[in-house]
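Reopening closed ticket. The problem is back. First fold of the pair:
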Amino acid sequence: MRIYLDNAATTPLANEVIEVMADCLRDLYGNPSSIHADGRQARAAIENARKTVAGYLNASIGEIFFTSGGTESNNMAIKCAVRDLGVKRIISSPVEHHCVLHTIENLAQQGVELVLLPVDERGRVSLEALETALREGDRKTLVTLMHANNEIGTPLPIDRVAELCDQYDAYFHSDTVQTTGHFPIDVAQTRIHFLSGSAHKFHGAKGCGFIYINGDAMLKPFIDGG
């Protein structure tokens, strides 16, 4: 008998997810951009899914955008914050997921200032160093720190980080791929500008994710088209 113990990397599909997906693949084949009945039916299903995600986060429906997963969502938040919001400085840590680390390293090569905060032996980010970096900076700043480490599970005191970012007028992005679906997040109480989720981390399908974008920090589309 095989026992699967790698759920932090990805989870198997839940039976109820398989059933819903099968129903959608069979019955909701219309183009959701079409105005005929089949298109409207598909569009209604998408908007119902958007409403479900928004409700989980206590967000507005218009703040939820579907993506292919965490990597796309994280890239979109970071790169578009630089492109659209005038971010010239990024504060992060050396223990972020590679889709964040590689993104900010590439942006650093293009002239964006990069500050990596120290972490202790348990992977905990120094909040004192974060506040110092925020206080000393004089350029528009994005803080990007993951909610829970994907390798060792170390949690971030996300409420305190959000408070510091708000105090020093910085944008806050959190990679919440490891925690969405497992730990409650209320964006009405915790001021986060961007966060990401990926369905395959909580028994959903691979290739399905979302990004939450706070209405006060709206970005232009990351991918142009329909």
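Second fold of the pair, where the issue appears:
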Amino acid sequence: MITSTKSTPEVNFDPDNGLLIIRGQSYPENAYKFYEPLLNWLDEYLDKVHADTVVSIELQLPYINTSSTKCFMLLLEKLDAAFLGGSKVQVQWSYNEDNESELECAEEFKEDLSIPFYITPKEEQQ
């Protein structure tokens, strides 16, 4: 688990349950340096994941800068390749209905992928 900061998201990967969660702002000074260990972990995980395991990535990214976008595309392309290779993989992107750019970002990612990709409004916090 990586705790969120002002410029980096919370990352919580639960390999036993096939759940990968990334939530928060993403504009680190060096996005590749932040995301490289996650990309490497994902490669190893996808190589070993059991064929029956459904791998679900949950994203909630209110703001994501250009360099983070490139890293996320790498991450999503890895998941897409696993899906096209027969793995059970899906993306769930939650967005704040007041944040139109967040929805547009999710839709742009979805356009380039074959993976099941669900975009839903975030439920209001009580």
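Update: turned out to be a display glitch only; the data is intact. Helices lie at 31-48, 66-84, 100-111. DSSP finds three helices and five strands in the chain. Please close again.
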